């Protein structure tokens, strides 16, 4: 074995898998990036089904959860997906996303559980926030649903590239009996040996897309021809300006003052993330199909949450604080 | 998968390691910034905080410190994962803090890494901790190590100083059995030789850090290892099958841990020892082939997730290992291994734990603590117990046999966890066999991962 301080000549090949004279190398037996991510996610999903009693997958109809559910279907085919899906409905969701959610659940013959923020508001267990956003209100219905159904593993579509607190999250992330995340006391995660052991009352959040980026998700959507709610692609919509974001004019998001009202106009937009209508912003975009979206995402200079989520602008640690309390 | 928009590059898993104040966060920030992986709003936030703190230049370290406590204290607490890509490949970077529980964090990051980027300060040279990091990297059998000799600007870009350090690094790495080591003079602060070549080091004609990372082989060569597939789940749809053709389907799903398997290969199922043949290699994609859903793949290799069909109706369940019949691993209930102890409570002989090996979890008793590894001397010293962040040798007796292979030759089937049966906590990262052999006898290291 020789130790060199420069790269070995045999390694410095030209394109992936070929040497300069065109002969193939061992790299033909290396997975491409998307193949590696797909295999890793399928491995994670199968581990959870094998090791937990009552898993559930969070499914909102948003692109990350659609991709995650697609991977689950692939992991067990030709057997059906062996767990139900759970949606925490803020009551302010885009109607077309809810329709997409229901159609997907029916196509895959899944059981859908809905935890409704509106129910909590109606009977007084939760109160509307002054700013009108309902994202932080999802935590309690989520935790109650997990406890009520005794779910012990909860798949989420969170990705580490989304946000700096999420960058510290494990693939298997233990939550105590109050659903809390303790970022300073996480289990070390070694090799691909995931440890899902937990005590009664605790549960584990599992993130099969941990190592995916926004661009990976879109490239996979293209590769696998995965259907999404139409609002991910450019369309005409009536919008107004609030805090530097474009919000849709709709039943749950109306201009609150003269400046906002004066800014109402129709624009060609799409959504990079899909959540509560009252705090999810649209982006100006002409990307009407998946290839155009990939080109747009590859060239963007703003992160997906920075561009579109009012709730993450509350403070530097907004996501960390919500996660500690049990948020997704 | 296979449309023109898809990248054909591979995924390289990286981990960083370094001592306090080596500038590791700055280097990672520089790598992300210069490869244009930092977006405008992230940079705005970092610039705002830098200004608030009265700094003259933007502190790129702030890009990687994700938790409130980290930003408040100006330290990195936990492993953080970063993602960046070039036109040639994508990178997953496990950014491991240097000072708080460095063994735990470095072991965690290095366990999945294809390459470790280790930082040293050109002014300080090799520290005790540098040697320890190299020992851990050798122990975990990380295929490639890149030592970034940082702050080269602060030694006036001295070629002499760099050459001196590079020689020391090579000698230390060799003595510890590190498979493949590269050195690069960099200034993370200024940006020299991180992504772009620095004008101040005309004497250095090697690759920049990013250029090197683009070239390193990703993963192990499947052809160099024997086929192993730990069974995760058995797929038997029966009445829930999508149609009649799949009603009697029975497949064994898992991720190929090592090697290559082809249709027709003879395999052994462990621990039963039954022999059979692979009759099909399926994925959801091949099973959706309208023409012939059972045509399947002709071969599969690590780390693909597949489902195998076998010739005989034998009892195969989760936790079983399907292995090449040509190269069959031994079963054992007595495991001697090297463990990195990650728990606050010490490990003592007699402790009852769970051992997780591939997809199999068995009860285990710690027979003996053989010794503690002195990372500075790379020697085993006698010990009664192992404490947090110790690395040592133990012997274990298992309640039922596992196909534990030498970690030195098989990173997947040679690794195990020790788990607390009561609270479920992860107690230790374990490596089967004398993982220190390579440290003491580098010349005996298998050649296949010396590129």
TrEMBL record, chain A:
<keyword id="KW-0548">Nucleotidyltransferase</keyword>
<keyword id="KW-0547">Nucleotide-binding</keyword>
<dbReference type="Pfam" id="PF01507">
    <property type="entry name" value="PAPS_reduct"/>
</dbReference>
<comment type="similarity">
    <text>Belongs to the PAPS reductase family. CysD subfamily.</text>
</comment>
<feature type="domain" description="Phosphoadenosine phosphosulphate reductase">
    <location>
        <begin position="55"/>
        <end position="281"/>
    </location>
</feature>
<dbReference type="InterPro" id="IPR002500">
    <property type="entry name" value="PAPS_reduct_dom"/>
</dbReference>
<dbReference type="InterPro" id="IPR014729">
    <property type="entry name" value="Rossmann-like_a/b/a_fold"/>
</dbReference>
<feature type="compositionally biased region" description="Polar residues">
    <location>
        <begin position="1"/>
        <end position="17"/>
    </location>
</feature>
<keyword id="KW-0808">Transferase</keyword>
<feature type="region of interest" description="Disordered">
    <location>
        <begin position="1"/>
        <end position="26"/>
    </location>
</feature>
<dbReference type="InterPro" id="IPR011784">
    <property type="entry name" value="SO4_adenylTrfase_ssu"/>
</dbReference>
<protein>
    <recommendedName>
        <fullName>Sulfate adenylyltransferase subunit 2</fullName>
        <ecNumber>2.7.7.4</ecNumber>
    </recommendedName>
</protein>
<keyword id="KW-0067">ATP-binding</keyword>
<dbReference type="GO" id="GO:0016779">
    <property type="term" value="F:nucleotidyltransferase activity"/>
</dbReference>
<dbReference type="InterPro" id="IPR050128">
    <property type="entry name" value="Sulfate_adenylyltrnsfr_sub2"/>
</dbReference>
Automatic annotation (TrEMBL), chain B:
<dbReference type="Pfam" id="PF22594">
    <property type="entry name" value="GTP-eEF1A_C"/>
</dbReference>
<dbReference type="Pfam" id="PF00009">
    <property type="entry name" value="GTP_EFTU"/>
</dbReference>
<dbReference type="InterPro" id="IPR054696">
    <property type="entry name" value="GTP-eEF1A_C"/>
</dbReference>
<dbReference type="InterPro" id="IPR000795">
    <property type="entry name" value="T_Tr_GTP-bd_dom"/>
</dbReference>
<dbReference type="InterPro" id="IPR009001">
    <property type="entry name" value="Transl_elong_EF1A/Init_IF2_C"/>
</dbReference>
<dbReference type="InterPro" id="IPR044139">
    <property type="entry name" value="CysN_NoDQ_III"/>
</dbReference>
<protein>
    <recommendedName>
        <fullName>sulfate adenylyltransferase</fullName>
        <ecNumber>2.7.7.4</ecNumber>
    </recommendedName>
</protein>
<dbReference type="GO" id="GO:0016779">
    <property type="term" value="F:nucleotidyltransferase activity"/>
</dbReference>
<dbReference type="InterPro" id="IPR041757">
    <property type="entry name" value="CysN_GTP-bd"/>
</dbReference>
<dbReference type="InterPro" id="IPR011779">
    <property type="entry name" value="SO4_adenylTrfase_lsu"/>
</dbReference>
<keyword id="KW-0548">Nucleotidyltransferase</keyword>
<keyword id="KW-0342">GTP-binding</keyword>
<dbReference type="InterPro" id="IPR009000">
    <property type="entry name" value="Transl_B-barrel_sf"/>
</dbReference>
<dbReference type="InterPro" id="IPR050100">
    <property type="entry name" value="TRAFAC_GTPase_members"/>
</dbReference>
<feature type="domain" description="Tr-type G">
    <location>
        <begin position="9"/>
        <end position="223"/>
    </location>
</feature>
<dbReference type="InterPro" id="IPR031157">
    <property type="entry name" value="G_TR_CS"/>
</dbReference>
<dbReference type="InterPro" id="IPR027417">
    <property type="entry name" value="P-loop_NTPase"/>
</dbReference>
<keyword id="KW-0067">ATP-binding</keyword>
<keyword id="KW-0547">Nucleotide-binding</keyword>
<keyword id="KW-0808">Transferase</keyword>
């Amino acid at each position: 074995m020789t130790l060199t301080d420069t790269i070995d000549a045999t390694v410095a090949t030209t394109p992936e898998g070929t040497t300069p004279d065109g002969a193939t190398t061992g790299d033909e037996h290396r997975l491409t990036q998307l193949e590696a991510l797909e295999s890793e996610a399928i491995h994670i999903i199968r581990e959870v089904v094998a090791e937990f009693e009552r898993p559930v997958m969070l499914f909102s109809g948003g692109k990350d959860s659609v991709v995650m559910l697609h991977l689950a279907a692939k992991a067990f085919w030709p057997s059906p997906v062996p767990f139900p899906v759970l949606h925490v409905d803020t009551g302010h969701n885009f109607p077309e996303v809810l329709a997409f959610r229901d159609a997907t659940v029916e196509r895959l013959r899944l059981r859908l559980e809905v935890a409704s923020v509106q129910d909590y508001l109606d009977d007084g267990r939760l109160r509307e926030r002054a700013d009108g956003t309902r994202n932080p209100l999802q935590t309690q219905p989520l935790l109650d649903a997990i406890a009520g159904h005794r779910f012990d593993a909860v798949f989420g579509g969170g990705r580490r590239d989304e946000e700096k607190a999420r960058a510290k999250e494990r693939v298997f992330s233990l939550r105590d009996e109050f659903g809390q995340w303790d970022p300073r006391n996480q289990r070390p995660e070694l090799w691909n040996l995931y440890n899902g052991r937990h005590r009664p009352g605790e549960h584990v959040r599992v993130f099969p897309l941990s190592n995916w980026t926004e661009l990976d998700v879109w490239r996979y959507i293209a590769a696998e021809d995965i259907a999404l709610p139409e609002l991910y692609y450019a369309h005409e919509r009536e919008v107004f300006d609030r805090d530097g974001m474009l919000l849709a004019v709709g039943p749950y998001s109306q201009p609150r003052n003269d400046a906002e009202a004066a800014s109402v106009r129709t624009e060609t937009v799409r959504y990079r993330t899909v959540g509560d209508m009252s705090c999810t912003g649209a982006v100006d975009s002409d990307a009407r199909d998946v290839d155009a979206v990939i080109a747009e995402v590859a060239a963007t200079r703003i992160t997906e949450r920075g561009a579109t989520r009012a709730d993450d602008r509350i403070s530097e640690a907004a996501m960390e604080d919500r996660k500690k309390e049990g948020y997704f | 998968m296979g449309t023109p928009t898809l990248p054909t590059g591979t995924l390289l898993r990286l981990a960083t390691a370094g001592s306090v104040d080596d500038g590791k966060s700055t280097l990672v920030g520089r790598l992300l910034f210069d490869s244009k992986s930092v977006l405008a709003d992230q940079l705005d936030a970092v610039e705002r905080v830098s200004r608030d703190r009265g700094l003259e230049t933007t502190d790129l370290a702030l890009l990687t410190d994700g938790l409130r406590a980290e930003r408040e204290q100006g330290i990195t607490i936990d492993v953080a994962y970063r993602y960046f890509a070039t036109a040639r490949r994508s990178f997953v970077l496990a950014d491991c803090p240097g000072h708080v529980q460095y063994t735990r964090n470095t072991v965690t990051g290095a366990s999945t890494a294809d390459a470790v980027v280790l930082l040293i300060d050109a002014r300080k040279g090799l520290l005790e901790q540098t040697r320890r990091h190299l020992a851990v990297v050798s122990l975990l059998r990380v295929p490639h190590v890149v030592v970034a000799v940082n702050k080269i600007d602060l030694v006036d870009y001295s070629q002499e100083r760099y050459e001196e350090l590079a020689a020391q690094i090579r000698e230390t790495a060799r003595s510890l059995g590190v498979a493949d080591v590269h050195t690069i003079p960099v200034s993370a602060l200024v940006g020299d030789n991180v992504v772009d070549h620095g004008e101040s080091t005309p004497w250095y004609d090697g690759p920049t850090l990013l250029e090197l990372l683009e070239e390193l082989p990703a993963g192990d060569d499947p052809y160099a290892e024997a086929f192993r597939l730990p069974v995760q789940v058995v797929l038997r749809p029966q009445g829930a099958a999508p149609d009649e053709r799949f009603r009697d389907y029975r497949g064994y799903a898992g991720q190929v841990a090592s090697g290559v398997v082809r249709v027709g290969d003879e395999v052994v199922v462990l621990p039963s020892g039954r022999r059979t043949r692979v009759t099909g290699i399926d994925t959801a994609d091949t099973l959706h082939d309208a023409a012939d859903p059972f045509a399947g793949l002709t071969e599969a290799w690590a780390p693909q997730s597949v489902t195998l069909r076998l010739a005989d109706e034998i009892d195969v369940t989760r936790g079983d290992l399907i292995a090449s019949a040509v190269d069959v691993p031994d079963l054992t209930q007595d495991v001697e291994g090297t463990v990195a102890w990650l728990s606050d409570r010490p490990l003592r002989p007699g402790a009852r734990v769970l051992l997780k090996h591939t997809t199999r979890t068995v009860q285990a008793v710690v027979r003996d603590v053989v010794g503690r590894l002195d990372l500075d001397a790379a020697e085993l010293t006698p010990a009664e117990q192992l404490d947090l962040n110790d690395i040592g040798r133990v012997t274990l007796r298992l309640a039922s046999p596992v196909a534990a292979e030498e970690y030195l030759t098989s990173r997947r089937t040679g690794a195990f966890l020790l788990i607390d049966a009561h609270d479920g906590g992860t107690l230790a990262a374990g490596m089967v066999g004398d993982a220190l052999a390579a440290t003491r006898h580098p010349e005996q290291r298998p050649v296949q991962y010396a590129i």
